Amino acid sequence: MTAPVTGSVDAGRAPWGARLAAAMDAAGPLCLGIDPHPQLLHDWDLPDTPVGLERFSMTALEAAAGEGGSSAVAAIKPQVALYERHGSAGFAVLERLLREARDEEVLTIADAKRGDIGSTMTGYAEAWLSDDSPLAADAVTLSPYLGYGSLAPALELAEATGRGVFVLALTSNPEGSSVQHAVGVEGSVARTITASAARDNVRALTSSHVTGTKGIAGTAGTAGADVGTRAGATVRPALGPVGLVVGATVAGEAERLGLDLAGVRGALLAPGFGAQGASGAGMRAGFGSAWPSVLATSSRAILRRGPSVGGLREGIREALEDLGR
Ligand SMILES: O=c1ccn([C@@H]2O[C@H](COP(=O)(O)O)[C@@H](O)[C@H]2O)c(=O)[nH]1
Fold first, then answer.
1. Which ligand 1 atom sits closest to the C-alpha of 170?
2. CB 248 within 8 Å of CB 296
3. Is 233 helix (H, G, I), strand (E, B) or coil?
4. Which residues line ligand 1 (CB under 6 A)?
5. Catalytic residue status for 113
6. Of 4, 267, 288, nearest to 141 (Cα)?
7. How far apart are CA 99 and CA 116, in angstroms?
8. Considering only CA atoms, which residue is closest to atom 7 of ligand 1?
9. What is the interface pTM, i.e. ipTM, of the complex?
10. Low-confidence ranges of the chain (pLDDT < 50)
11. Of 5, 194, 222, 304, which residue is 20 to 30 A from 154 by alpha carbon distance?
């Protein structure tokens, strides 16, 4: 049985989908991954210690926060593993990063890839998605390989607090296909996860419209409403709280696997842009009509432009240009 989720609910926060759509419209479809790899710390002339980690993180945040009060990117995505390897001091740095990003109004996606049986999933949900938690982010990545249904505590808390989740569907690493392409009675595993996310988003978007709670971007509160466009492309649908992770390097396989990415009604977080070889043109082709919902994320390719804030901002500008911004 799933443990009840606790933690206060911020009734005033707009839904995640609306907040992300507004950020993507303002800054473009780019998320800056903050991955403090030991090699990058070394390249930035920083020690591989919590002190180096903190300097690295605050510099990356300064670049992401932009100038004149407008963010340079739609969101940042700290890679939790690279904070965790520094133990409790690393988590303290991550807490500071998340707190300061919130103060700067930069959206945060904690790349923690959490997933567990229901009773303990509640603990992970409260850690990353509760207003009371020092690690609270705007969204968290989740692994559905203990069963999509086991993620329910996180999905419920995300929806209740105006936050989001990104469920791994089709990952950018070559090993992912051994699980995600496997075919069961409902088709591929990735297809089942995609259909489950779509179902939950339609329900969430419909209920927020019916009850009038929070609203979607102030105007478009229906599951069928459109909340944004992207340069001459298809219109982006209203986005619900359940996004998917679909690797930028493998998006072209979605159609063959029967995934209806355009029908997910959630954001598609696309890692693999930059250092793993995916380009803006390749992503547009791979995602097809789902492209307006794609949030490309790039870590090393931009971070290698540091340690100066100017160098990082130049990397962000070039990435956005490649994405057609
Ligand atoms: O399928 C996935 C899921 C997550 N990631 C994460 O994204 C970044 C990618 O970093 P780059 O330096 O831009 O390659 C990293 O944190 C991964 O854990 C992914 O790559 N693929």
1. 1
2. yes
3. coil
4. 33, 35, 79, 111, 171-173, 245, 247, 271-272, 274-276, 297-301
5. yes
6. 267
7. 26
8. 271
9. 0.99
10. 1, 7-9, 212, 214-232
11. 222
